[in-house]
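Now for one record.
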Amino acid sequence: MKRSLPRMSRMFRSLEVRAKGPELMDDPAQGGDELREALRHLRRLNRLFAASGRTLYGVARLWEQAGRPSRLTVLDIGSGSGDVNAALLRWADARGVAISITLADRTEEACAEARSYYADEPRVNVVRRDLFALEAETADIVTASQFVHHFADEELPEVAGAMLRASRLGIVIQDIHRHWLAWTAVWLAARLVSGNRFVVNDGPLSVAKGFRAADWERLRVRLRTRSLAYSWRPLFRYIVTVPKTTAPGGGAHKTEAIPFGRS
C-alpha cells in the first residue's frame, strides 16, 4: 500500500495536462467480439455516471435557442452503441417533437451494437461514417458524447469545425472533466462492472485525456467565436454548445476554425 501511494500521487499530478496516449479503441486493428462486449459494458458505465442526461441538457439548450422547432434531426458522431440517445427519444415524446436520430461510427462493431440496441426504434438510423466524411448540414444538431477526448489539442478546432459544417443549428459536445476524483471513480467502476481489457484500459485513460475549463477557453479562441458555451455538470462532465448562426444580441455569426500551425 505504501509503495502504491507515490504512484497514485504521480498519476494525480499528471492530470494537470491532457494525456496523449492512444486508447485501445483508437486502433482500427482491435475489434471483433471483444470490442462488442466492451461497448455493452460501456452502457453500464454510462448509466452509472448518468451520461444521457448531459447530452440531453445540451440538445435541449440548442432546441430552446432555435425557437423550439416541432421537428428535429440529430446526428451523434462517434456514437458507439448510441445508448445515451434513448433519453432524447423520451424527451421528444414528452414535448411532441418529431425527432430523427442518426448514429454514426467508423467501426462495424459499434454499428452492429447500435442496430441491435435500437432494433425496434424506427426513429433511429445507424450508418458507418467517419467525422471528416460528413456532408454539410447533415442534421439540425450534431452531438459527440465522450468522443472529442480521442483527439489531441491541436486537432480539436478541426473536429469542432467538421461537426459545425455538418449541422444546421449547432453542436453539442459532452465529455469528461479531467479530475483525480473522476479518474479514481472510473478506475474502480471499470473493474467492478467489466473485466474487458478495452474498458479497464480505456476508461481511466479517457479521464486523463479529458478536459478542464481552460481547454474549452482555448477552443473558443481557436474557433474565433463568442458563442461557444460550456458548463460543468454533476458527475464530472462538461457540456459544450456552439450555436451555428446565432450571435449574442441576434444576427448571424460565422464560426471559423483557425487552421493548424496558426495562432
In short: The two ends are 46 Å apart (CA to CA). The first strand starts at residue 71 and ends at 77. Residues 34-243 form a domain with the Rossmann fold fold (CATH 3.40.50.150). The CA atoms of residues 35 and 245 lie 38 Å apart.
